[in-house]
Amino acid sequence: MGKVTATRTPLFFQSKLLCISVLYLFTTLFLAFYRSVSPTTCLFRSSPSDPIQSPLFYYPSSYGEHKYAITTHRHSCSSPVFFSDYGMVVGEIHNLCTNSSAFLPALRYLQGKADTFGGNFETQKRFSYFNYSNDEIKVPCGFLKEFPVSDSDRIAMESCNGVVVVSAIFNDHDKIRQPVGLGSQTLVDTCFFMFIDDITLQGLYEHKLIPQNLPDYKVGVWRIVKVFSEKLYENPAMNGVIPKYLVHRLFPHSKFSIWIDAKLQLMVDPLLLIHSLVVSKDVDMAISKHPYYVHTMEEAMATARWKKWSDIDGLTQQMETYCKNGLKPWTTDKLPYTTGK
């Protein structure tokens, strides 16, 4: 009879625990190496619907060192809104924007000439327009004095017919911050406009962020719109609230809008933000909660304390007018509204 030779498994492979440990070690080393050499900091993000990770604009190191901001360390990879829904969201918002009947009826606005942009209506006169029931009534909503921007900027604003993201910097108080985590289609369907005054524009010139003597400016995704503020109000803060509250007048053909303070950075794709907070909730508006205050009076006192508004007497008079016309401190009786503004 022939001999049967038994082959033995090497001792190294006889331990399952050892094999698993070695596999885990090599996998960890591979992932660490991939992360270190990857141009993005997200692992295995290759779908066209995934967030854009490359910087949208490179700033000089000296720009904005003296500016203040509410910072965040959240990366777009950990966006609170799931990017797996991005394709569906883009399609749904696009269909809404092309269906103009979904946004009717439209308001009619009072036209005319006045010494001031808002018209200086008495409080009770403004109150008379609040109970809007007649489509033929024209309501006062600013623009009784021309909003002074260039013709090319005005054409671009009127041509934005989908989603618009708006911000403003007056008196060079903040710096331009690029949004993070935009989807590839968002740059096609969304307009980004930053309103500035001449003082802010001079700062951009000094840091060489934009060339001088050009009709149009752009910094990253933001189209820069210079407002000739000397033709509006003396106080830069007064001019800054015009694009904040009257986006629907500045962009008459846009269907959705987002206002973001210049001290903040947009960390979520605007299409996902609008869909999650407005479209899916079937509401007209979503308002962010103030990170520190729950009542207008608290904000007014902070504004005076930190000298964000130089006219303290005017601020006092404004708050007294609010209280005279019914402003009350916030209580739980105002829920579901979480502020008293």
UniProtKB/TrEMBL annotation:
Keywords: Membrane, Transmembrane, Transmembrane helix. The chain crosses the membrane at residues 12-34. Pfam families: TOD1_MUCI70. The keyword Cell membrane does not apply. Residues 113-339 form the TOD1/MUCI70 glycosyltransferase-like domain. Signal peptide: none annotated. The keyword Chaperone does not apply. InterPro entries: TOD1_MUCI70, TOD1_MUCI70_glycTrfase_dom. This is TOD1/MUCI70 glycosyltransferase-like domain-containing protein. It comes from Gossypium davidsonii (Davidson's cotton).
